[in-house]
Specification:
Subcellular location: Cell membrane
Protein name: ABC transporter permease
Number of helices: 29
InterPro entries: ABC3_permease_C, MacB_PCD, Macrolide_Exporter_MacB
Structural class: alpha+beta
Family: Belongs to the ABC-4 integral membrane protein family.
Largest sheet: 10 strands, mixed
Number of domains: 5
Membrane topology: Multi-pass membrane protein
Radius of gyration: 34 Å
C-alpha cells in the first residue's frame, strides 16, 4: 500500500512530465483500436448487405464464381437457359422462383459521356429489377423500368451525379451501347458500401448484357414455410442435376464476405503494422521519460532506501507509476480509437463508399487488446529505468551522485550492438547476392531486423561520434551557444541515442521505401524505352476489357500505321514430357505485337510464334519441361477445342514487361474458340504513321470520347501514370508512418522538457553570469536540431542501405536500375531540422521564463 501511495503521489506530482508519454501511448492504442473498430464495422456492413440481398437459394451458371462475380473473358456474364426457371419451380419446397440477369462488366455514362462508375473501386452493376432487389431497395421517385427505353438508378448515384427523372443514360457493354431515360430512383434500405446500381426490365437486361433473350444469370428461389435452405438446395439439385451452381443464402453471403475479407485483412494488418512501429517508437519515449525522472529523483530514492525501502520496493514504485501511465493513456486511446474509426468511415464516404455509423461495431476484444497492449508496452518500457532506480545506493543518492554509472555494462552494450550490426550487415550482403528472390527475401528480413536492433543498441556510440561531426558543421557557426548545445547533446549519449533512435526508425522506413519506389519507376521506364516500339496504349484503368466497339473506333482513327490487339485466356497444356498443366495463362496477340514489344528470345524469333498453329514459351517453362524449337504442345483452350501448337520461339526470362508470357496469334485462337466465346482485348496498341504522332494522339482521344472507361496514353503518359501509381502508394505509406514520426517528435519534446528541469540550477547559473534569454532559447533549439539531425542521418543512411539491398532482389525480377531519390532524401533531412526547431519551442520558452534566483536555489 505504501508503494502504491508513493507511486500515485509521484505520478500526480509529475503529471506534466508524464503528459507526452501518455499522448504517445494514447496515439498508438488509438490507431490499433481505430483499425479494429473500422474493419469490424466494415465486416458488419457487408454481413448485413449480403444477408439482405441473398435469396434462400440461388441457382447460377457453372461459369459464375461462388460470390456471383459475372466478369468473363468475352465481356458477357455466364448464363443458363430460361428453361431452368421452370425446372426450379417444379422442385419440392419452392414457394417462388424468379429469373434475373445482371453484369458487372459494364460502364454507364450520362448524356455528356461522363463515367458514372464509382471511383472507390466498388462495382457498377446493371441488372433486371426483381423481387429480391425490391427487399433492399425502395423506389422513392418515379417508377420501375418498363420497356427498353427506361432505366432506374440508385439514389446515392443519382445524388452524386445530379441525375433526375428523364435524364438520358448510356449502358456500354460487350454487346454495344444502349441508351435509356431515368424512369425511377430507388433508395437503399440497407447500407450501400459504394456500388452504383442500375435496373432495367428483364428482356432489356438480356438484350443489352448478353445479346439475346431466353437466358438468365441467376434464379432466385424462396422456400416454402418450414423448409430449410439446406433442404431446399437439396431438392433443387435433385431436380436440376449437377449442371448448375446451387447455393444457400449462407453460402452466397459467406462467399461474398470472403472476397471482402481478403481485402480488409490486407488493410487491417498493414495498419496494425504501422501501429506496431508507433509502439516501438513510443518505447524509446517512455524509457527516456522514466530514466530522466529516476535521475531527477535520486535524492528522494536515497531517502527511501535510507529509511528502509528495499530495492524491490523502489523498483515496484517506478513500475506502478508506469502502470498508472499505461492505464491512463490506454483508456483514452480506446476512446480516441472509436473516433478514428468514425473519421475513417467519413473518409471512405467522401471516396464514395458509404458506411453508416449505425453499424459502428466495437467488439469486446477491441478495448481489451488496446488496454493490454498499452499497459504491457508501458510497463516493459519502464522496467530498465525501474531496475536502475533499485540499484541506487542510499549513500550515493544522498550525496546526489545519481545512479551508478556501469562502465562494464556500457562496454557489453557496445560489443553486443556491433555484433548485431555486423550480423545484420552479413544478412544484407547475402540478400544482395542471392540467386533466388525467395531466399534473398529471408536474408533481407533478417538483415533489416538485426541492423535496426544493432543501431539502437550502439546508439550512444553513434551519438558520441555523429553529434560531434554535426556540431562541427551546424553548431560551431553559432559560437559559444552552439558549443554549449553540442555539449548538452553529448552529456548523456545514451539519452541522445534513444531519442534519435525513435526518429531513426520512421525515417529509415521512409528512405527504404523511397529508394525501392524510385528504382521501380526508373527500371520500368528503362524497360519501356528499350522494349516498347509502339506509340500509344489504350486500356481501362479499372481492369475492364476493351469492347469490340471501342476497338473498331481505334482502328478507324486516321493517321495510324497499325493497331495491335492483345488478348488473354487460359488453357490446359500437355507438354512433351507428358505432364498436364491445368488452367495455364496464354496470351494471344496480332503478329505486329512482335514489333510493338521487342522481347528478347533465347531461341527462334518471336514473329514466328504468330504463324498458324504456333506459339512461344518462356525460358524457365522450356527448361522445366524439356521443350525446344519444334516441340509440340497440346493446348485445350478454355471455352474452345483442343489444338496441337508448335513451339517457334523461346523468350528470355530476363525481362520486366510480359515476364513469363507465352504467346500465340489471335487468328490461331479464333480457329479453336467460337466467336461468341472469344475473349475481349485486355488492351490495344496503336502506332502512328511517321510524323503523325501528335495528330493521331488527338484523333484517338476524340475517337474514344464515347468510351470514357478507356484511357489513351503515349509513352510519356504511361511513364507518368506508373510514377503516379507508385507515388500514391508511397504517399499513403508515408501518411501511416507519420504516426510514428509524430510519436518520435513527442519524444524529442519530452527529452528536452525533462532535460530543462534536470538542468534548472545550471540554467540559473548561466543566466547569472550573463547568458541572455535569447541565447538560452537558441541553445535549447540548437540542441534539439542536432538530436533530430542525428536521428535523421542514421535513419536515412540505414534506410538507403535497406532500399539498395531490396533493389538487388528486384533485379532478379528484371528491375535492374538503382535510383536514389536524392531530392526526397535531402528534403527529409532538412525537414528533420525544422522538426527539431518545432520540438524545442515549448521547452525553450519555459527555460527562458525561469526566474534566475529561484533556479539557482533549486536543489
Amino acid at each position: 500500500m505504501t508503494v502504491l501511495k508513493t507511486s500515485m503521489r509521484n505520478f500526480f506530482a509529475h503529471k506534466g512530465r508524464m503528459a507526452l508519454s501518455a499522448i504517445a501511448v494514447l496515439l498508438s492504442v488509438a490507431f490499433v483500436c481505430g483499425t479494429l473498430v473500422f474493419t469490424d464495422t466494415m465486416n458488419t456492413t457487408f454481413d448485413k448487405l449480403f444477408a439482405a440481398t441473398s435469396s434462400d437459394v440461388t441457382v447460377s451458371a457453372k461459369g459464375a464464381s461462388n460470390s456471383g462475380e459475372t466478369t468473363s473473358g468475352n465481356g458477357r456474364p455466364p448464363v443458363m437457359p430460361a428453361t431452368v426457371l421452370g425446372e426450379v419451380r417444379r422442385a419440392q419446397g419452392v414457394r417462388s422462383a424468379e429469373g434475373t440477369v445482371f453484369s458487372t462488366s459494364v460502364t454507364v455514362v450520362d448524356a455528356g459521356k461522363n463515367n458514372l462508375s464509382p471511383k472507390s473501386g466498388a462495382p457498377t452493376i446493371v441488372g433486371s429489377w426483381n423481387g429480391n432487389d425490391a427487399r433492399t431497395m425502395k423506389i422513392s421517385s418515379g417508377a420501375a423500368p418498363e420497356g427498353p427505353d427506361q432505366i432506374m438508378v440508385d439514389a446515392d448515384t443519382a445524388k452524386k451525379h445530379h441525375l433526375k427523372l428523364g435524364d438520358e443514360i448510356g449502358v456500354i457493354s460487350a454487346v454495344g451501347t444502349h441508351r435509356a431515360k431515368v424512369s425511377g430512383i430507388a433508395d437503399f434500405t440497407v447500407t450501400n458500401p459504394g456500388a452504383a446500381i442500375f435496373y432495367v426490365d428483364t428482356a432489356t437486361a438480356q438484350e443489352i448484357l448478353v445479346g439475346h433473350t431466353g437466358v438468365y444469370t441467376n434464379v432466385n428461389v424462396t422456400a416454402d414455410q418450414g423448409v430449410s435452405d439446406a433442404q431446399l438446395k437439396k431438392n433443387v439439385v435433385a431436380e436440376l442435376g449437377g449442371a448448375y451452381k446451387v447455393q444457400t443464402a449462407k453460402e452466397t453471403a459467406d462467399a461474398n464476405q470472403k472476397d471482402v475479407e481478403s481485402f480488409l485483412s490486407v488493410m487491417k494488418y498493414a495498419m496494425l503494422g504501422f501501429a506496431g512501429i508507433a509502439f516501438l517508437v513510443g518505447i524509446f519515449l517512455i524509457i527516456n521519460t522514466f530514466s530522466m525522472l529516476v535521475a531527477q529523483r535520486t535524492r528522494e530514492i536515497g531517502l527511501m532506501r535510507a529509511i528502509g525501502s528495499s530495492r524491490g520496493q523502489v523498483n515496484r514504485s517506478v513500475l506502478a507509476e508506469a502502470l498508472l501511465l499505461g492505464v491512463f493513456g490506454s483508456v483514452l486511446g480506446v476512446g480516441a480509437g472509436v473516433g478514428i474509426a468514425v473519421g475513417l468511415m467519413k473518409l471512405m464516404g467522401s471516396m464514395g463508399m458509404h458506411l453508416s455509423t449505425d453499424d459502428l461495431t466495437v467488439a469486446w476484444t477491441t478495448p481489451v487488446v488496446g488496454l493490454t497492449l498499452g499497459v504491457v508496452v508501458t510497463v516493459l518500457s519502464a522496467y530498465l529505468p525501474a531496475r536502475r532506480a533499485g540499484k541506487v545506493s542510499p549513500m550515493a543518492a544522498l550525496r546526489d551522485a545519481g545512479a551508478p554509472a556501469d562502465a562494464k555494462a556500457g562496454r557489453i552494450r557496445t560489443v553486443a550492438g556491433l555484433v548485431l550490426t555486423a550480423a545484420g550487415g552479413c544478412g544484407l550482403y547475402l540478400a544482395a547476392n542471392a540467386g533466388k528472390a525467395a531466399q534473398g527475401s529471408l536474408w533481407l528480413g533478417a538483415g533489416v531486423v538485426l541492423t535496426l536492433i544493432g543501431f539502437v543498441v550502439i546508439g550512444p556510440l553513434l551519438a558520441s561520434g555523429l553529434v560531434r561531426a554535426l556540431g562541427a558543421v551546424v553548431l560551431r557557426i553559432f559560437g559559444p551557444v552552439g558549443r554549449m548545445a553540442e555539449r548538452n547533446a553529448l552529456r548523456n549519449p545514451r539519452r541522445t541515442g534513444a531519442t534519435g533512435a525513435a526518429l531513426m526508425i520512421g525515417l529509415a522506413l521512409v528512405a527504404c521505401l523511397s529508394v525501392v519506389g524510385s528504382s521501380m519507376v526508373a527500371s520500368a521506364t528503362d524497360q519501356l524505352d528499350k522494349t516498347v516500339g509502339t506509340d500509344f496504349i489504350i486500356q481501362s484503368d479499372n481492369g475492364q476489357l476493351v469492347t469490340p466497339q471501342a476497338v473498331k473506333a481505334v482502328k478507324s482513327t486516321p493517321g495510324l500505321e497499325r493497331v495491335t490487339e492483345y488478348k488473354w485466356t487460359r488453357a490446359d497444356f500437355t507438354t512433351p514430357d507428358g505432364k498436364t498443366l491445368k488452367d495455364t495463362a496464354i496470351t494471344a496477340a496480332d503478329p505486329t505485337y512482335a514489333t510493338d514489344l521487342r522481347t528478347k528470345t533465347v531461341a527462334g524469333k518471336l514473329a514466328d510464334a504468330y504463324r498458324p498453329d504456333s506459339m512461344s514459351v518462356h525460358e524457365k517453362f522450356a527448361k522445366d519441361h524439356r521443350i525446344h524449337l519444334g516441340s509440340r504442345i497440346a493446348v485445350a483452350f478454355k471455352d474452345g477445342s483442343r489444338a496441337e501448337l508448335t513451339v517457334r520461339a523461346i523468350t528470355s526470362d530476363d525481362v520486366v514487361i510480359d515476364k513469363g508470357a507465352m504467346y500465340t496469334s489471335i487468328s490461331t485462337l479464333a480457329r479453336y474458340v467460337p466467336a461468341d466465346k472469344m475473349p475481349l482485348d485486355q488492351l490495344v496498341f496503336a502506332t502512328a504513321e511517321d510524323g503523325q504522332q501528335t495528330p493521331a494522339y488527338k484523333a484517338l482521344k476524340s475517337a474514344l470520347h464515347d468510351y470514357p472507361q478507356y484511357t489513351v496514353r503515349d509513352q510519356t503518359d504511361y511513364k507518368q501514370a506508373l510514377k503516379d501509381q507508385i507515388g500514391q502508394l508511397l504517399n499513403m505509406i508515408y501518411g501511416l508512418l507519420a504516426l510514428a514520426i509524430i510519436v518520435a517528435i513527442l519524444g524529442v519534446v519530452n527529452t528536452l522538457a525533462l532535460s530543462v528541469v534536470e538542468r534548472t540550477r545550471e540554467i540559473g547559473l548561466m543566466r547569472a553570469i550573463g547568458l541572455s534569454r535569447r541565447q538560452l532559447r537558441r541553445m535549447i533549439r540548437l540542441e534539439s536540431v542536432v538530436i533530430a539531425l542525428f536521428g535523421a542521418l542514421v535513419g536515412l543512411g540505414l534506410g538507403m542501405g535497406w532500399g539498395a539491398t531490396a533493389q538487388k532482389l528486384l533485379a532478379l525480377q528484371g528491375l535492374k536500375v538503382l535510383e536514389i531519390p536524392w531530392g526526397t532524401i535531402t528534403a527529409v533531412f532538412i525537414g528533420s531540422a525544422f522538426v527539431g526547431l518545432l520540438a524545442a519551442l515549448i521547452p525553450a520558452f519555459r527555460a527562458g521564463r525561469m526566474n534566475v534566483l529561484n533556479a539557482i536555489a533549486t536543489e
